[in-house]
Amino acid sequence: MKILYFDIISGISGDMVFSALFHLLSKKAQKDFLKEFSLLKLPVRFSIKAVRKKDISAFQLAVIDKKTKPYQPKDFIAIIKSLPLKKEVKELSLKILNSLITAESKVHREKKRYVHFHEVGDYDTLLDIIGTSLLIDKIGPQEIYASPVVLGKVKAFATLEILKNVPLYEIDYPFELTTPTGAAIIKNLAHQFIPLPLMKIEKIGYGAGHFDLEIPNILRVIYGELLKKEDNIILIETNLDHLPPLIFENLFNLLFKKGALDVFITPIFMKKLRPAYLLSCLCQEKDKAELIKTIFSETETLGIRYYPVLRETLKREIKVVNTKYGKVRIKIGEFNNSQIKNFEYEDLKKIAQKKKIPLIKIYKELSPYLK
User: Fold this and answer.
1) Per the confidence metrics, is the pTM higher than 0.70?
2) FRET label pair with 12: which of 35, 120, 191, 193, CA 20 to 30 Å apart?
3) Which of 227, 255, 285 marks a domain boundary?
4) What UniProt keywords apply to this chain's record, in alphabetical order (predicted)?
């Protein structure tokens, strides 16, 4: 699986993203991209050139001139919709722009259609967003990850609004290292914010910022093959010694409906050797609050603990086979150049119920399909 990893060393801005992604292209692809981009006739002229930051070779985007007439979000939206771009490029551009508009609207208590981007920067914003969306489409990663986002001492209100629920940390520089546009871009691009995953690096792009710091003011974007998928997920737990087991089926169903990845019960002994159950629920960070609320409501437990855990998953696919009982799905995982195959349980269950045949008999009869 081809991925991009945004290594946010000293902040992130729209021009740094544009430059780093541009750096990943071959020289011919760079020329073709600039020619294609010029045909869009955006109301801003720019240059992109090779520079050095602390002896690191990088590309840097610079605006030469731009139109300065007053504008509103609807103007940017109309421009994006009017451009001869692929559907996917337009959709990503509009998503990033909407994140900016929503954040500015909330911070300044203005209706979205009247929002002005203040420090975000006129038509520079349009250049950064459309350029990034086009470059992502050209590079074509299957997934995108990022490191936690670095902030300087100066933080725009919109930046923090956009980066809610994103891991952040601050370094001791009196600058705005991460801008609202950079925040909106990475919030919409990154599937997860994690340490560098196990991968085979093929290319590295460097996008230079405009500050001179003790550390290189660059954004590093890494392209390559993901060797093993690793997820950061949440494990929620609570000990239950006061409930009859009959409530667990309903509880499980509710938790799965609200986004649980897995739910399981472990018999345990608590203090004074009281028999009890350990309820465990795995979930994504975004579903944690709702699942905790459900557990409190359904179990009346007095306390819940949770913590992050790492999960590794195999590359997998679903194959449908035609059997004498009808279509059955087979889950296929790849490991060490071999395959691990299993039937989709729900398919076998439906056949067993419909045909009134023991499920184990159907499993044994169809097992040759797993070879």
Assistant:
1) no
2) 35
3) 227
4) Nickel
